[in-house]
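Hey team,

Sharing the Uroporphyrinogen-III synthase run so nobody has to redo it. Sequence (373 residues) first:
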Amino acid sequence: MTETLRVDTSGGQLAGFRIGVTSDRRSGDLIDALERRGASVFHAPALKIAPIAEDVDLLADTAAMVEARPDLFLITTAYGMRRWFEAADAAGLGDDLLDVLGSGRIYVRGPKARGAVRAAGLDDVGISSDETTATLVDELLEQDLAGLTIGVQLHAYADAHQLERLRAAGAALLTVTPYRWIKPEGSERLPRLIEAVCAGRLDCVTFTSAPAVDALFSTAAEQGLQEELIRRFRRSVLAAAVGPVTAQPLLDAGIEPIVPERFRMGALIRLVCDHLAEHHVEQLRTRAGYVEVRGRSVRVDDVEVDLAPAQLVLFKALLSARGAVLSRDALTSLLAHTGAGHALDMNVNRLRKSLPDPHLVETVVKRGYRLHV
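Structure output:
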């Protein structure tokens, strides 16, 4: 007997879910928002932005930009724009930079970059329709760029292909990167996050920058876990990216992340909540009572059940089958990826002992196991 149940979110929409956070900047805001909604958060910053005082290239590139006085400017991020002026002001170049930007035509990648430009007392002449550098370059290429100098404010993840398109059109490019990535304090937690993904102990991992994705993959490769990490993201662990630039290295690895329509932190949080609640909550009426699995949280009626990773994998599979029989081979193949080896019967016995009613998991002789519905 099966029945569609109403999701209980009294403990928070993300109650029962464990979410990995890879960002350093603004991670506190993201973590607080997830925890307020009931999630358990594993914070493992992949990269952080280098302090301005340590970034000598930024001042040299700014001085070169001031001297060259480009005809056009591409401003890609609000944070980069603000940080650029902060560094220029500290070096006594703020007024010169403002004068140079004011003498050229400014194009912006999105509304936040436009806001930063206007906050500096400047204005732009064009904006990307979808907040991507590629679309912004498309707009520039509609005009003759031959012989022009273009100043590009990069966002720590340079899109070499888009820069090459501008050069191929005859433009001379000057670039400035107001923030660069370095390893943060707490970077030793990143290997543990990777191990947690591979062991099925996380339901979702959030990404707010493409370099963080690259850092995750390279660290996993050093651990010998990159293949298993990617397999987990493809099959069971949700990857959530704040925008298309962040999503690209995930897509390149064959991972389909969720991406909000508006590339903002708040929109990302709402999308994670909605997606996990819709796609990662299983409920079923059984002979033992109402069963609900939300991430790592298992409830049978009003009883909270604590399951080890291997037993949780088995229980989720049986619950998804909704009373149908799962073969021993199918269940054994699931255990092979949990570190539990092939001890199916032992793990089924442990699962039964953990449940309020051990008869909830039935043995079907010579076939496999099912839930007693």
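The two ends are 6 Å apart (CA to CA).

Ping me if you want the raw files.
A.
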